[in-house]
């Protein structure tokens, strides 16, 4: 356990250098959320006229939703780095060294967390440039970032754990896609909960993606209900820790199959 | 230094290891020689704690691989088949990470990395991404990464597969130096007979997950008395008939047929050639070529497994 923190730091450094050396990869990651914001923002502009939306601006409503979808799409791919490492023999070298297994997970999550924070910041800046205004101010944005990082931790760990089990990029992409869209649409990312059908409202109450959206949207509002925010942040933290722990267990499954 | 006792490993229906046992004394270069699919890599995976055996036990550097995997991992350096370095990092970054994972810090890890870069001739390329390296450079970096924490046992899984002849010769010189200077115990797998002959002080021949012979390369070869006489027949010659004719010559042993080639063993090769040719002449078998060879590891392999090494390699893995 004493090795968890230093190993996480060294391995995070390796992944961040990797990310920084793939400018195309970084650019794609930055462009995608902006396209969503602009495209969906325009497409559903008048949706706020439906009763049930608490805001008069769909752009303001949509911003946390786009941030959360960005989290899902980015971190769902986290496991690809694991698969690359398996194919290159890096994983075998790591696992035959005294490297802390959980540090491999934590480093992946930290790397994804940095990416997500940059993406989320860009989404917020673009939204502001388009005329959105957030009553929650800087604190609200910080809470949204925290919620996004927790969701990233959960989702990236899930992706890594799956990577260790399925071991091929095709299966991992399939798994990630299968999860990302339904989880987004079974939340209030794009549409107010009051407008959604009853069963989706029920499901979304148990959906960590929805917790992230609700906590962020609440924190960004002019008069946040902090109790509701903290409750969801707590839930997200629990899910994130459980996912990291479970995904670390998947190393055993990987080694058993060798 | 390494002790494997009745290791068994199954993958579904396939038995990769069928009770493999061997002991590697400290300070030796020990070669595991066998064709692809013989169980060499599986053995390395078990000894380096990557994979768990279905049966049997193993200790490396005094630690049980199953009960004390972390102690084993601290004591060993591993160079996996293919490569284990990160292509999107520089050579120096790869080495620094390997050292830090093993607990080296600060100036100690930096000076150790500089030392290894210099020793493997990689100083000039140290700050270049590994994906720009040649195969030989990459392999040297792999070995350097395996040595960064001064392990007591080094595992080299097919260290020269895929290298060009020059890079292979360099790697051989490097491995020979390791064993000579650093009192390191090296376990090397290879399917190159020359490599095993050149490098290994002690050799274990494995086939289909089992040990078939062991000893020094010299001893294994000297067990084969005499020379090999290899007769290659003309395309339409009768192989069976030729084999019988050669077998009937007094003093010939271990006659084996493969394709159009007949191998046999005699005490003195050069003087046996005339009688071999005469016997084939009497049966009107047309001969394309005759060669006489001093015993080589290939013959050892042939004798113990009944297959030539090249034929065993052709079996789909």
Written description of the protein model:
The complex is a heterodimer of chains A (258) and B (317). Chain A has 258 residues and is mostly helical. Chain A has one domain. Helix content of chain A is 77%, strand content 0%. Chain A has 11 helices and no strands. In chain A, helix 3 runs antiparallel to helix 8. The longest helix of chain A is centred in the last third of the chain and has 31 residues, at 226-256. In chain A, 47% of the residues are buried. Chain B has 317 residues and is an alpha/beta fold. Chain B folds into 2 domains: 2-221, Rossmann fold, CATH 3.40.50; 225-294, Alpha-Beta Plaits, CATH 3.30.70.100. Chain B has 12 helices and 14 strands. Chain B has helices at residues 40-47, 69-75, 91-101, 106-119, 135-147, 165-181, 193-199, 217-222, 239-247, 269-282, 297-305, 309-314; strands at residues 2-11, 14-24, 29-33, 55-60, 63-64, 76-79, 153-157, 185-190, 202-207, 210-215, 227-233, 253-258, 261-266, 287-293. Chain B has a 6-stranded mixed beta sheet, with helices on both faces. Chain B has a 4-stranded antiparallel beta sheet with strand order 2-1-4-5, covered by helices on one side. A 4-stranded antiparallel beta sheet of chain B has the order 12-13-11-14, with helices on one face. In chain B, helix 3 packs across helix 4 (106-119), helix 3 runs parallel beside helix 5 (135-147) and helix 5 runs parallel beside helix 6 (165-181). Chain B is elongated, with a radius of gyration of 23 Å. In chain B, 44% of the residues are buried. The interface between A and B is medium-sized, with 25 and 30 residues.
